[in-house]
Specification:
This protein is mainly alpha-helical. It is built from 8 helices and no strands.
Length: 180
């Protein structure tokens, strides 16, 4: 831990991902989604992180299903690389919340890939967290088109959480029980 482990430069080149298997597309994509959502709904969120978080969430909802189903789609891969970068800015300037807090022990004890353990917990944990931040979750629901402005914040937040479940289903994320 410490500055010695922080790179001076990061090269973001989506072409390295074009041959990634579906599972390697889904896990980091859903991890980036988790970073963006947790950073946006964190008590440490602020204007910079909010801006990048909403952008990342919108990109991921639009492009992760495409990249997952057609790994050679260069636009989807490039947009996912950008979304992951945005989500990285978010998480490094705010904080993680309940999903990461619960997924880290799963990864450590059961050797589940980090992004996959996040994804397996995402809908349930965010459903719990949404009760304390309907406004933030509602904004995300509206941003991705899962909710509209006529819906109450509570309904829009629940629509967003439901959309998270749909995204995990598209990416064939198993439940904790299915994973074993």
């Amino acid at each position: 831990k410490g500055p010695v482990l922080m790179p001076d430069v990061a090269i973001i080149d989506y072409t390295f991902t074009l041959t990634s298997p579906k599972s390697v597309t889904a896990a980091p994509g859903l991890d980036a989604l988790t970073h963006a959502i947790e950073g946006y709904t964190s008590r440490k969120a602020q204007l910079l992180t909010d801006t990048f978080a909403v952008s990342a969430v919108k990109r991921i909802f639009k492009y992760l299903p495409i990249a997952y189903n057609d790994g050679s789609n260069e636009e989807a891969r490039e947009q996912m690389a950008l979304a992951a970068l945005e989500a990285g800015v978010v998480i490094n300037n705010s904080s993680v919340t309940i999903v990461h807090g619960m997924s880290r022990p799963i990864g450590a004890l059961f050797h589940v890939p980090h992004g996959l353990s996040n994804a397996m917990l995402l809908e349930k944990c965010m459903s719990f967290a949404a009760d304390g931040a309907y406004g933030k979750f509602a904004e995300l629901g509206r941003a991705i088109g899962a909710a509209d402005s006529a819906m109450s914040d509570r309904s829009a937040a629940k629509a967003f959480v439901s959309a998270l479940g749909e995204m995990c289903s598209i990416c064939e994320v198993p439940t904790l029980l299915e994973y074993g």
